[in-house]
């Protein structure tokens, strides 16, 4: 009856503050247990949270210091310092608080980049199991690098040598299972002598920058209800900002700001308006959608200190794929938003997809840029959508800078589709339709079904469309280079089918359970492709584009050396000429290069670095290493690197305490199979074999036991083979588990 309590609490708040004054609700996170009036008062909120710091929820963690901290610790950065392009350090997830991932460093340039060699390689020692993904952008300050693995293990590393300084690893709760899309962490934040990390179980933790000791720990939310943290927090103006993930679990999204000193919540702004507030008219009246409608914020925000605004994009509507019970535009889902950074007050929003039924949420971090257009300097904000368009807006007011047209789109009564959708002027960076030629070339002869384009609705009859819910652009961050005035974006291009459940039963909201509302799946035996695209920021037109034969799932760094760097699923880190896209350098690492590269400088030397650790959704080879390159590096290829030259975490053994230790039991049981499934298959195939993000439904399999075993061993299509990764017993166990899914279905 949680919902009812929140209703009562909110009713209390509304009566006291008066309806309609605030467009968003400020609420004590504990409000469903608190007295209604307490929820309003800041003081009582302080007490609750300070209590939690003293006793950080009884959570165990591991932390160890190996060597003395060699550098200075971070100050309480001024806005001016955080707005500077990163010319030595890499201070925030996006390089600076504009999120542009542009560095003015130019020692490494198009003329000498071919001499770039690996200088040091460091093995983090965690996050190797298949369910983990390495998506972190490392940060660097005064010669020290900070990195985090999918297992939430944070390390401070000497940025010149790759040696470990300290390590921290939290114990994550047993049974944590509300992660739709792999166990990931996109990075830490730095400031005021602290390292901030958001944990998968929705805790926010501050570590001492010198020692890795826990300074404070705050429970942001309850993972059991589907709230998790995968994004890097942002440090700005003495506060730590974090959003929340969980759009697939029927959550109520928000961004919250915490006092960087003590972890007390300063404000929290929900992205779903309460009944009566501005935006609530875009939902059915008298519904509880405002409590379960999604709109998570799962990327690191950007800030414009001059305007005093914080910017981010919101995730999908819940349930993702069924619009039948949520007539209207469903604000503020799928939107770029601006709030007052001090107070969290709403400033403006721009919705990219009205009444989303395809999971086309803007997953890519927003990027701020300043550019002269028609003789006038414009303050821009760019967001690369899953739709395949870049949305270019004026960040002072949210109005289109290049032009975005509302156009009529195909309708479906059952889905209560929006009559129009926004179509940005300019080029899309991935295909948005399926042509006869595509069908002929890409799809198996036996595949027959209805095809559609972007915004084609679906109901009972399956429809296959492009782009897929993977995008377009997904989380892998884009970059903007002020010299080329080009915006660089990675795109995914694959075939996905959607259909509404025949049974209404499947469409019920249950707290903490995945809630898609319909079925989606990739088309079996169809190719996945990717694009690396440079877009003219003034016209939104493509200047150059490189096509890949896999999804592009890493992130982009651009530099004043006229370069861009990005990672490839096959393990390569690749450099292109920023002006024309010509490939100028590559190095193959030992795992999927599925995280964004960075650059930094220590003692006058420029380095390029990438955390190459593989990805469960992309199905790439897993690893745990940071590769750092320089013009004075020694190793031209992986084969040149002797095992003993790789720095290994000295605490590797001690840290191996999180769930999922390999147990060697002979007994084969469905329970064990479930464990293997959760660790290796769930992110793609979904809970209980349905609703996964990159694999077909496994509940009505037409395969015998031997065929299933062969599929698991060899993979195929976009599924990796597990012959080397799993034992015979584990393969047997997971096969039994999968067979049990179809039996239950009858
Ligand atoms: C990276 C995503 C991914 C992961 C991880 C993954 N799969 Fe798959 N799986 C797929 C895709 C995509 C297909 C369809 C393959 C094709 O195109 O033919 C598939 C197909 C299958 C099939 C055949 C389904 C059919 O109807 O033909 C089975 C069975 C299966 N997977 C089981 C598993 C098991 C068990 C695991 C874990 C050990 C696993 N998968 C891990 C993506 C994945």
Automatic annotation (TrEMBL):
- Region annotated Disordered sits at 29-89, 403-428
Keyword Zinc part of the UniProt annotation: no
Residues crossing the lipid bilayer are: 7-26
Query: What InterPro entries does the database record attribute to this sequence?
Result: Cyt_c-like_dom, Cyt_c-like_dom_sf, Cyt_C_IC, PQQ_b-propeller_rpt, PQQ_rpt_dom, Quinoprotein_ADH-like_sf
**Known Gene3D superfamilies for this protein?**
Cytochrome c-like domain, Quinoprotein alcohol dehydrogenase-like superfamily
Q: Any idea where the Cytochrome c domain is?
A: 668-742
Instruction: List the biased-composition ranges (Acidic residues).
Output: 29-48
What keywords would UniProt list here? Answer: Electron transport, Heme, Iron, Membrane, Metal-binding, Oxidoreductase, Signal, Transmembrane, Transmembrane helix, Transport
State the needed cofactors, names only: pyrroloquinoline quinone
Q: Where is the composition biased (Polar residues)?
A: 55-66, 411-420
Cross-referenced PANTHER family, in alphabetical order?
QUINOPROTEIN ALCOHOL DEHYDROGENASE (CYTOCHROME C) (PTHR32303)
Q: Which family does it belong to?
A: Belongs to the bacterial PQQ dehydrogenase family.
Name-wise, this protein is: PQQ-dependent dehydrogenase (Methanol/ethanol family)
What organism does the record attribute this protein to? Virgibacillus litoralis
Q: What is the lineage of its organism?
A: Bacteria, Bacillati, Bacillota, Bacilli, Bacillales
């Amino acid at each position: 009856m949680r919902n009812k309590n929140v209703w009562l609490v909110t009713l209390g708040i509304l009566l006291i503050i008066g309806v309609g004054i605030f467009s968003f609700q400020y609420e004590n996170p504990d409000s469903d247990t608190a007295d209604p009036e307490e929820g309003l008062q800041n003081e009582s909120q302080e007490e609750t949270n300070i209590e939690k710091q003293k006793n950080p929820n009884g959570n165990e963690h591991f932390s160890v210091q190996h060597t003395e901290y060699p550098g200075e610790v971070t100050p309480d950065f001024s806005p001016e310092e955080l707005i500077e392009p990163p010319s030595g350090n890499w201070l925030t997830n996006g390089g600076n608080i504009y999120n542009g991932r542009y560095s003015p460093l130019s020692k490494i340039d198009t003329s000498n980049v071919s001499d770039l060699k690996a200088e040091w390689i460091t093995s983090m020692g965690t996050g190797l199991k298949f369910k983990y993904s390495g998506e972190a952008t490392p940060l660097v300050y005064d010669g020290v690098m900070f990195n985090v693995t999918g297992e939430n293990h944070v390390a401070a590393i000497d940025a010149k040598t790759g040696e470990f300084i300290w390590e921290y690893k939290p114990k994550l709760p047993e049974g944590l299972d509300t992660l739709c899309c792999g166990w990931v962490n996109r990075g830490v934040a730095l400031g005021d002598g602290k390292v901030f990390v958001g944990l998968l179980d929705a805790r926010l933790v501050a570590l001492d920058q010198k020692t890795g000791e826990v300074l404070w720990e705050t429970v942001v939310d309850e993972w059991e209800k589907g709230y998790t943290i995968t994004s890097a927090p942002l440090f700005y103006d003495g506060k730590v900002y974090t959003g929340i993930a969980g759009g697939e679990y029927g959550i109520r999204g928000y961004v919250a700001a915490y006092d960087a000193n003590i972890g007390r919540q300063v404000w929290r702004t929900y992205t779903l308006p309460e009944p009566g507030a501005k935006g609530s008219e875009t939902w059915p009246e008298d519904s509880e959608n405002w409590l379960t409608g999604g709109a998570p914020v799962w990327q690191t925000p950007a800030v414009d200190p001059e305007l005093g605004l914080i910017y981010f994009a919101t995730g999908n509507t819940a349930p993702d794929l069924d619009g039948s019970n949520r007539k209207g535009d469903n604000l503020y889902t799928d939107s770029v938003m601006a709030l007052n950074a001090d107070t969290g007050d709403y400033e403006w929003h721009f919705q990219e997809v009205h009444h989303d039924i395809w999971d086309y949420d803007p997953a890519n971090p927003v990027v701020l840029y300043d550019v002269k257009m028609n003789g006038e300097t414009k303050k821009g904000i760019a967001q690369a959508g899953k739709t395949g368009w870049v949305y270019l807006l004026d960040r002072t007011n949210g109005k289109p800078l290049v032009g975005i047209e509302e156009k009529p789109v195909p309708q479906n009564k059952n889905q209560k589709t929006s009559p129009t959708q926004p179509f940005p002027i300019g080029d899309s960076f991935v295909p948005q339709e399926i042509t006869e030629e595509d069908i002929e070339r890409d799809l198996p002869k036996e595949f027959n079904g209805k095809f559609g384009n972007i915004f084609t609705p679906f109901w009972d009859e399956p429809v296959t469309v492009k782009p897929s819910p993977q995008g377009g652009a997904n989380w892998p961050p884009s970059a903007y280079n002020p010299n080329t005035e080009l915006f660089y974006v990675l795109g995914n291009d694959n075939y996905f089918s959607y259909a509404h459940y025949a049974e209404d039963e499947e469409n019920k909201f249950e707290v903490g359970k995945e809630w898609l509302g319909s079925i989606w799946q990739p088309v079996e035996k169809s190719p996945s492709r990717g694009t690396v695209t440079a877009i003219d920021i003034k016209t939104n037109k493509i200047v150059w584009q490189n096509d890949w034969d896999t999804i592009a799932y890493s992130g982009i760094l651009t530099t004043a050396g006229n370069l861009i760097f990005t990672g490839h699923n096959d393990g390569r880190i690749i450099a292109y000429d920023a002006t024309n896209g010509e490939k100028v350098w590559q190095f193959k690492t030992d795992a999927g290069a599925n995280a964004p590269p960075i650059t930094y400088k220590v003692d006058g030397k420029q380095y390029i670095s990438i955390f190459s650790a593989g990805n469960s959704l992309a199905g790439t080879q897993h690893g745990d290493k940071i590769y750092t390159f320089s013009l004075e590096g020694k190793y031209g290829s992986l084969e040149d690197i002797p095992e003993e030259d790789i720095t290994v975490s000295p605490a590797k053994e001690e840290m191996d305490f999180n769930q999922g230790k390999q147990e060697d039991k002979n007994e084969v049981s469905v329970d064990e199979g479930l464990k293997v499934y959760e660790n290796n298959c769930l992110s793609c195939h979904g809970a209980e074999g349905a609703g996964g993000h990159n694999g077909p439904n496994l509940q009505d399999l037409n395969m015998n036991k031997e065929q299933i075993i062969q599929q698991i061993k060899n993979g195929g299509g976009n599924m990796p083979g597990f012959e080397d990764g799993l034992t015979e017993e584990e393969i047997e166990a997971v096969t039994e588990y999968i067979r049990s899914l179809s039996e239950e279905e009858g």
